[in-house]
Specification:
The structure holds two protein chains of two kinds. Chain A is mostly helical. Chain A contains ten helices and no strands. Chain A has one domain: Orthogonal Bundle (MetI-like fold). In chain B, the strands form two sheets. Chain B has a five-stranded mixed β-sheet with strand order 2-1-3-10-4, with helices on both faces. A five-stranded mixed β-sheet of chain B has the order 7-6-8-5-9. The termini of chain B are far apart. Chain B has three domains: 30 residues; 204 residues, Periplasmic binding protein-like II (D-Maltodextrin-Binding Protein, domain 2); 93 residues, D-Maltodextrin-Binding Protein, domain 2 (3-Layer(aba) Sandwich), CATH 3.40.190.120. Chain B is built from 16 helices and ten strands. At the A-B interface, helix 5 and helix 9 of A face helix 5, helix 6 and strand 7 of B.
């Protein structure tokens, strides 16, 4: 029986941050040890120390590419939020619109980016615009779908209450529907955040050019063609770290937005 | 058995011994003729420019040399390069020496053992009547369609030496559509291949600007393998090289029907007319069998030329002087022996 004021070990704040880091560190040390013990050549599997060294040596150019990938990722995410939320509100307001447009949205979701990226590049001249479009396609559906569900999940009794008090549609939206939809929207945002990064990288792999405005995917391809395997891993490391960072950022956003009132983020008072 | 005279006493034993000895010899013989499995990856989809290798496979030359060869295609989005140092393939077709220099720079232990082409057919194509009169003019093109392989090799040389810019670059995916749609665009290709496709699909002859005529004097369609393979299995490498050289001679001068069937099977987009046109161009431009190859056999390489090409690339700023020893990129121990010259004389009378 836990004593009053004492929280179980698994919920201690510091442990939650330290444990994953510890596991990572153990894995990295194991990797380094294996590479050294078996003298694995760097062009087959580079050691973490070599990868970090290569990252440091190429920091300038890799960060420039990272910045470009970030621009595409967050640009696409922003557009996905705008488009997804707008469309979700439209769907919530008019059943007709929803019935006609939802199948289109589904088609967008299931079409693999790898297949249509080269096609998009034929029609759109600017590579950046094409990449934004591809990443948008990937990120927009979770937000749309989740927000629509959220807007619909407002408590029916509360809706009736609003009707009783003759609330205008705008007031209903602002005071009832939006707060009800918020947790669902945030859940969709968490998914879309990771997806827009994936979309940006995959789109660039299949359709991107090289040279001036290039993101991490092009750097990975370049390193692969020039058999610079440590550099390939260094670029991949940046992509993974970015994905983790995006995940953590949106977790924080969720906690800030919902922490005080929604079950999913509330902390138990003991 | 002791009542039998001596020869008969040992009759059954000796016949048993004979049987065992015969079986043993048969086993040894079959293992001697057992085919060694070899995987050869190319750097593009199957085409006449790879004909010699497909010929050696189709007409059984590889088999005669005891090699069970599997040819893996490359392609516009495919990169077979990392497979060689990783040990997944045994031989790799490489488009130009820049790739080999890059490997040296990154301490990847590979080496080129033969060069099927004496002249690099890599070229840039432009629409006629657009004001492109020389290779230098192409640098002004608004769009340059370059594939991934070229992007990280000869494109770097084009930027350095002729002032091409990355802003012009668009990916070339083996589709001539974008080039046909934009008259001011220029695209890469093989001088023995793309002009035929363009003529067939769009009905005009594009302007051809050969990189080799403008200072890009690299060997092309070399065969690379791992350094440790050269060290531990030199006979295997020699067999592959010799069989490939014979394959090229047969492909160019003999009956290449079976090889072309193989090529068309591997790459259904390829047509007979295209293949035939390619071979004519290869002979006309002296891509395969010219210069050193005439006397020393197809596949010939010289260290002097490799060093000279490296100097040119240093001057163009791609590498720093002394960064690598270019002679390490090739080994001439398997070529320059006149293999195939007799065969050519037989087939062509010259």
């Amino acid at each position: 029986m836990a004593e009053r004021g004492e929280r179980p070990l698994v919920e201690r704040r510091w442990l939650r941050s330290v444990l994953p880091v510890l596991v990572f560190a153990v894995l990295l040390l194991g990797w380094e040890g294996l590479v050294r013990a078996y003298a694995v050549p760097s062009y087959i599997l580079p050691a973490p120390s070599l990868i970090l060294q290569t990252l440091w040596d190429n920091l300038g150019s890799l960060m420039a590419s990272w910045l470009f990938t970030m621009k595409i990722t967050f640009g696409a995410l922003l557009l996905a939020v705008l488009g997804g939320v707008l469309l979700a509100v439209l769907f919530a307001v008019s059943k007709w619109v929803e019935l006609s447009l939802f199948p289109l949205a589904v088609v967008l979701q299931v079409t693999p980016i790898v297949a249509i990226a080269p096609l998009i590049l034929i029609f759109i001249d600017s590579t950046t615009a094409a990449l934004l479009l591809c990443a948008w396609i990937v990120a927009f559906f979770p937000i749309l779908s989740n927000t629509v569900t959220g807007l619909r999940s407002a408590d029916l009794n509360l809706r009736d209450l609003f009707r009783l008090y003759r609330a205008s549609p705008w007031q209903t939206l602002r005071f009832l529907l939006v707060p009800s939809a918020m947790p669902y929207f945030i859940a969709g945002l968490k998914v879309a955040g990771g997806l827009s990064l994936i979309g940006a990288v995959v789109a660039e792999f299949t359709a991107g050019a090289a040279g001036k405005e290039t993101g991490l995917a092009s750097r990975i391809l370049e390193a692969s063609f020039r058999t610079e395997i440590p550099k390939m891993f260094a670029a991949l490391l940046l992509v993974s770290l970015t994905g983790i960072a995006i995940h953590l950022v949106f977790n924080l956003v969720a906690r800030l937005a919902l922490g005080r009132w929604h079950e999913s983020e509330a902390r138990r008072e003991r | 058995m002791s009542h039998l005279p001596l020869p008969e006493r040992y009759g059954r034993v000796s016949s048993a011994i004979n049987a065992v000895a015969g079986a043993a010899m048969l086993l040894c013989a079959t293992s001697l003729f057992a085919q060694e499995k070899v995987v050869f990856a190319t750097n593009w989809k199957a085409q006449a420019a790879q004909g010699g290798f497909y010929q050696a496979l189709a007409d059984g030359t590889y088999k005669k040399y005891g090699l069970d060869v599997e040819i893996i295609q490359g392609g516009p989005m495919v990169n077979n390069r990392p497979l060689l140092p990783a040990g997944k393939i045994d031989f790799l077709m490489t488009g130009n020496l820049l790739h080999s220099f890059d490997n040296l720079k990154n301490k990847v232990p590979t080496v080129a053992v033969m060069s099927a082409f004496q002249k690099d057919p890599q070229a840039m194509f432009a629409h006629p009547g657009q004001g492109y009169n020389s290779f230098k003019d192409l640098a002004k093109a608004p769009v340059a369609l370059i594939g991934k392989d070229g992007q990280f090799s000869f494109w770097q040389w084009m930027k350095s030496e002729y002032g091409f810019k990355d802003e012009q670059l668009k990916p070339y995916t083996y589709n001539i559509g974008p080039f046909l749609a934009d008259k001011k665009s220029v695209q890469q290709g093989y001088a023995i291949e793309e002009p035929l496709t363009i003529k067939a699909k769009a009905g005009f002859d594009p302007l051809v600007f050969l990189l080799a005529d403008n200072g890009f004097s690299t060997y092309s369609t070399t065969v690379e393998t791992r350094v440790d393979m050269v060290r531990t299995k030199p006979q295997l490498v020699q067999k592959f090289v010799d069989a490939s050289i014979l394959g090229w001679n047969n492909y160019l001068y003999g009956n290449n029907q079976a090889a072309n069937e193989l090529i068309k099977k591997a790459n259904p987009d390829m047509s007979d007319a295209n293949i035939a046109g390619s071979i004519v161009l290869m002979k006309q431009m002296g891509i395969v069998d010219s210069g050193d190859a005439q006397t020393q056999g197809i596949g010939a390489m010289s260290e002097a030329r490799v060093k000279d090409f490296f100097e040119k690339m240093v001057k163009a700023g791609l590498y720093k002087a002394g960064e690598i020893d270019p002679a390490q990129a090739i080994t001439t121990q398997f070529v320059n022996k006149g293999v195939g010259v007799e065969l050519r004389k037989q087939l062509t009378g010259k």
